[in-house]
Amino acid sequence: MLREDALYASYRRLERPLYNVLYRQLWQAEDCQDVIHDAFVRVWERRAKVDEATLDALVWTTALNLARNRLRWRRLWRQAPLDEAEAMMEGAGDTDFLATRRLRQALRELPAAMRDVLLLAEFSGLRGAEIAAVLGIPAGTVASHKHHAMERLKALLGEPVDA
């Protein structure tokens, strides 16, 4: 059974890395904070069945699944107009905005499995074996997915690809 202090300790360890990964999927600070909160609430609600040894992996998995659900929901509502701030920046031609937009589009074009590995490897602070545990894949697949994701991302962004 999960203890309250173990959940708080997990939150202190994971809040920033979770935010870093989720932001590169959701691109909205409020959504990231909501997903992190919801992930910890869901884990707490299942505390009777949670093993503290696998707590961090469970939080990561829950947060990634919630983010995927949120992205699916957004796609359903894609025809909604841009929010006001984004529309103003787009109209102004802000170069940071345009670069971020290109990166967002390129990340969206990666297969979900590759994107998850890449974001976890670059922004979570997790090692290969830990990423494998979070995603439920072999450790060798983590390295392979990361390599292929980087190559594909470079190609999508028009950067030279390593030979």
Nutshell version of this structure?
This protein is an all-alpha fold.
Characteristics:
Rna Polymerase Sigma Factor, Chain: A; mainly alpha; 76% helix; 163 residues; globular; 8 helices
How much beta, percentage-wise? under 5%
For the largest beta-sheet, the strand count, sense and barrel status come to: none
Low-confidence runs (pLDDT<50, min 5 residues)? none
Total helical elements: 8
Give the SSE string.
HHHHHHHH
CATH topology of the largest domain: Rna Polymerase Sigma Factor, Chain: A
Bin the helical content. Answer: over 70%
Mean pLDDT: 86
Rounded to the nearest angstrom, the distance between the terminal CA atoms is 50 Å
Instruction: Give the overall shape, derived from the CA principal axes.
Output: globular
Number of domains: 2
What structural class should be given to the helix and strand makeup? mainly alpha
Radius of gyration: 17 Å
Q: Count the beta strands.
A: 0
CATH class of the largest domain equals Mainly Alpha
What's the architecture of the largest domain in CATH terms? Answer: Orthogonal Bundle
